Structure formats: C-alpha cells, structure tokens
Amino acid sequence: RSQLTVKTNGLKFITLKTCPRLSPNKTNSGNNDVIRELTTRRRDASYLNTNYLRQIMKTNEELLSYLVYDKHFDVLDLKLRFYIISQLEQYICHTFFKNHQILPFGSSIAGLGTPNSDLDLVLVPNKLSEDQLSKEGDRQRLTTNLNLIADLLQHSVPYYSHFSRILKARIPIIKFGFELAPIDIDLSIEISPHSVHSGVYMSAYLNHCILLHPCVRDLILLLRVWAKQHKLLKPKNWSTHIVYNGFTSFQLTALVIYFLQKQEIVPPMRQFLSHTSDRFILSRRDVSTLELLSEFLEFVLSL
C-alpha cells in the first residue's frame, strides 16, 4: 500500500491510502490466468460472484484479498477525482462564485472509495452574513445557483455530460458525468459556511480510522460486498418513498465504526474533533480482518 497527499483550494492537504491492483504474481492461488482475467474484467459484476471465486481460491485469505484489494483506489483513481475538483474550482470558483470553495466528501475522501464510486462535492461560501437571506430566499438562491452552474458546465466546460437537475429534493443537487472516466458527480451548495462541516468531518474521521488500523477499511468493504450479495444494501437509486428493508452504505459503515469503537480499535469521534485522538491507545493491533468479521457478526446478533 502507499499513501498519496492531494491538494485543492478547498481541501488543502489530506493523505489517502492507495493500493496497487491485485497482481497475478502476488497470489498463491496457482491459477494466474484466471486471476489475470478477473483483475482485467473486475468491473463486470458477474465476476464478483463469491461461489465462482471460491472455486479458484483455496483459502479465505485469498478470497478476502481479491474482494477487498480489487476495490482499492489506485493512484490514477485518486488523481482523476482531484483533477475534476481542480477543474471545477477553476471554472466555478474563479468566475461567478469567487468567495466560494469546493469541498469533497463521502467515500472518495473517507478512504472507502472504489473505482466506481461517485464523487460528492459541495460548494460552500468562505463567509456569509447570518441575516443576509431568509429561509425562503435561501432555497430560491440555491436552485438559481445550481441552474447557473449546470448551464456553465454544460455549455462551456468540456468532458461533462448527462446533467440531471434534482432541485426539488430536500437537498437540491445537480448530477453529471465525467466523460473521460466512469465517474458520476453530485454537486450541492451550502448557504452557510458552517453547515457543511458534518459531512466533511465525517469523511475525515473515517479516513483517520482507516489510516490508524489496517483492518478497518478491509472490514467495511468486505461487509459491503457481503451485504450487497445478500440484498441487504439499499440500491443506489433507492428512494425514501419506497419501503426497503436494508442498509444504506453509510448506515452499515456507521454500525461497523460503532463496533470498532467498542473494541477500542478506533477512537471516539469526539476525540478526533477535539484533536486529542493522538492520546488514543490502540488495542488489538494484531487482530485480523477475518477475526473482526466473526466478532462483528456476533456483535450484531447480540443487539
């Protein structure tokens, strides 16, 4: 694994964990041709069938390595996303929104991103008078500004397409795609420079936990694969108007983090926010991902 330090105007420095793609030469399965084919065609969902993988991988550790490491960001995945952020800052924050900055959050920043993860962005002002707008005016200004940004990107900036303006949602957003890579982008706007921090802080906290213990990311990604195959994860296009008995990815991640906090493997979030997490004493440093998986399932059954 390696670490990549990235920089944008809105997010000065953050260190993200990257991992090279699974190499056929680094597996003990003895079937390099099959592994090479799986690695090359990793985006094909049919190749993530656990029963099929079980036939060619002899141990749980080999299966875990493929399921988890296949989903790691590599350096190119990260650079593409921060190239997008830098380009959007150039066109948005240097033109109509000069007192704003773009902050990334979500899986890509938390360290849980996969090559197919969406890029979640929020445009936030550097400062704003508290009594500048009423709530009704806030909503109208949000939709007006999102329409302005969508028009700007759609007609003046290359390589962005498939724009969708979801302006009547509780949090209005515009969705669009990056043509040079399979990356979907969600962009929202915050009126206040303070209200955005929950998502940004949560992403930074998760990234801190992942850097603190090597099993945190592996456990979360493994459980996501397991939950998706058992139809326990709500689909990506799930609507709150539809009854669906399952987790969102964030809900599952929050449950895993709570379990790891109880195990004293990651610090409480309040310690991270108060900048005292360096005093946290990490326990069970040598525990394996498979051990934590077994304990997590027992923990869930005990709830």
Automatic annotation (TrEMBL):
InterPro entries to which the protein is assigned, alphabetical: MTPAP-like_central, NT_sf
UniProt-listed GO biological process terms: RNA 3'-end processing
PANTHER family registered for this protein in UniProt: POLY A POLYMERASE CID PAP -RELATED, POLY(A) RNA POLYMERASE, MITOCHONDRIAL
Highest taxon listed in the record's lineage: Eukaryota
Family matches, as Pfam families: MTPAP-like_central
Gene3D superfamilies xref list: 1.10.1410.10, Beta Polymerase, domain 2
Name of the protein this chain belongs to: Poly(A) RNA polymerase mitochondrial-like central palm domain-containing protein
